[in-house]
Amino acid sequence: xxxxxxxLLFLAFLVTFPCGAWGADPDNCERQxxxxxxxxxESDFYRAIGEYKRLIFLCxxxxxxxxxxxxxxxxxxxxxxxxxxxxDAFDAFLVNYPDSRMDPEALYLKGMSEKSLSLHxxxxxxxxxxxxxxTGEDRARAIYQSAQVLVDMERWERAGEMFSxxxxxxxMYDSAGVFSAGLGNIGNLPYKSPSVxxxxxxxxxxxxxxxTRRPADAIxxxxxxxxxxxxxxxxxxxxxxxxGGIVTFFELGWYSGNVYSAIxxxxxxxxxxxxxxxxxxxxxxxLSYLHDADxxxxxxxLSMKF
Length: 306
Description:
By secondary structure, the protein is mainly α.
């Protein structure tokens, strides 16, 4: 039998072989899920995603298994910190399973993914969906994370109000109290006035930088501007007006740059002061996402420093 006839027989066998025979076997579907779950438990998230997708393709009639696979694809992306892919995966889950008992968890993780992407308005809208329909801890953590988004948006008053809505008895109640009290003091931080920095720099080059606690920049600004001013004065005294004019022209540039830099330094100082303050608040509170593979339960672990 020649090679051509063998190939034709092989192709005929493939055509007559039932394509869904493997996936139709419930035992094989369960084994496929178990393999994907094992990869997930080992934090091999990308291979786990591939196996969950294989399960969905091979076992489309196993609704409960496919529901879990869709959710775990999103959770795998979330654990791998692929926020955009996680958000898209949870969107797909919510479209395919609008009445699932895992919908609150999928919405929460979708919101957290949007928060990590700095999609503030989208995250607030997602958390608002949870707040409107859920109760208990699901609602409490959505309120808490909405407040955190408002902190990222620097809407301090609204953030404080949102933290105050976290109910007593929630695992996040104490953490919300820490943030609420801290945000009340954010206006009392030792900010530097950009207008004062600019005025000082205009009066004495380098003084604005010294005011914003940048002594090295202050020394450079003072010496550079001083050298150009001294040179210009000497040249005009020697009646070298053309050269003196050129030096004066360049000095005006350095002088203006000194004022602008001092103002910019004040803004940077204020930003760093605020970020350090918020980092200190967040450092006192640590929230960790937990997933129990055996019970398929999810939750938050809170730790606080005093």
